[in-house]
Amino acid sequence: MALNKSMHARNRYKDKPPDFAYLAGKYPEFQQHVQTTLTGRVSLNFKDPEAVRALTCTLLKEDFGLTIDIPVERLIPTVPLRLNYIHWVEDLIGHQDAGERVVRRGIDIGTGASCIYPLLGATLNGWYFLATEVDDMCFNYAKKNVEQNNLSDLIKVVKVPQKTLLMDALKEESEIIYDFCMCNPPFFANQLEAKGVNSRNPRRPPPSSVNTGGITEIMAEGGELEFVKRIIHDSLQLKKRLRWYSCMLGKKCSLAPLKEELRIQGVPKVTHTEFCQGRTMRWALAWSFYDDVQVPSPPSKRRKLEKPRKPITFMVLASTVKELSIKAAAMGWDAVEAIAVVRAWVEKILTDLKVQHKRVPCGKDEVSLFVTAIENSWIHLRRKKRERVRQLRELPRASEDVLQAIEEEKNSQKSKSNNSGCENSKTEDSEMGIMAPDEGVQLTTGDELLEESAAKEECGEHVKEETEAKQGETSLDKGSSNAKEESCSSEESSNLTVEKEQSPKETSRCFLFKCLMNVKKEGKDVLVEMHWVEGQNRDLMNQLCTYLRNQILRLVAS
Fold it and tell me: What is the C-alpha separation between 418 and 423, in angstroms, rounded?
């Protein structure tokens, strides 16, 4: 019963599915179709028409006090699905808000042998029904079922010619305004479609229940799409003779073209819903020409999102928290508790990254931050620095003759001039586009000087990459330390600052993502959770989480 939780809120089977064991013990005609497994579980073979018929008759008798007979060669309705439709019609006509004295009248187009919609509507709500039927066998059974339940004063079953929908059925009822019409149309256009050939996604499992029904009940020219379009065209002539027109659909793909047809025809009020029960889904469409009707909202997509997405987490061990507390005290912070210490360092790292964050109310023994990332400031730092090194190599260089002349002039100035002379020399050098090196540094040619600087940058980057790779492999829980990370961390922070000054962005335009960060106690350790709220890519939050974890590790290692 995978979809039962998405049934209509008032459906009695939503939270309490039928108890087969209880029903088998009470109704012998149902007990003969029940199977008991070795584990004691009671089940029913839904591919057996006799078993399905016995279940329908038993549920109607047990839960609604209705006694019906259904020929096995005609459509056998499932009670939870039909009950979903009845409850939705209640929502359409505002039955729950109206007084008990309000008389409601409805039409059931193609009532079937069971006459189940009129029987349920009359029993539950006292509705009056005009039930139409084209098939002789179905007409006779429907009339018999109404009579044996003493509901002839509420339900009128009429035999109509083939292809008759609403127009011909209402010829004799010219002065009555009906509140609604219901219809379970033939879903299929031919026998191949009824068997699932070229109409069912091959990836879907085969149906779990048998498909019963006569030719007129399951097939019509053009299938359900053309059948419902004929009802739409009848409604364009009848208009306000009915307050609501409605039809059930067996295929979701039929919903969009029918809504488009209603839009083209200028129908002012249109809504739809979905019926969920067991492993079966159906859809329904309703429309009205009245301006004063209340239109129920279509179902939201929350049903598909019921399973919450797990947060991204990392753990800060008690030993790590202790080290962080010592560093926090050295910086003059008043954070004492483990949660406060971790929160303070996380806030500092986010501030350094220029990631917006603010504290929000939360439960006891935890701290929550609402984080908004405007730009990606936590990755590609090494790549950006290598790019600056490449740009440095491409800067224009002075010739060797000029450099030698500058060196000779500098040496001569040193021997016969004072400090002011040295300052003047540096000023002249800077005016020529080259700054003289500090004292004690051997000046080589321009190419050698720049290559040496670039090599040092490359070497520092290589050491940094190797260190960070090792840190990525080391879990935070182990709390491994490496003294070399201190210089790398400070170097990375300075590079981040420089890079942001070079390429400022307007943060008011958009954001990368938003998340809720919870810092809570987990035994003696501290757990950091990041819950996705919205944004461009969930992977960005994962990257930030990894960066925070590694930065905390570097703090302990230093």
Answer: 9
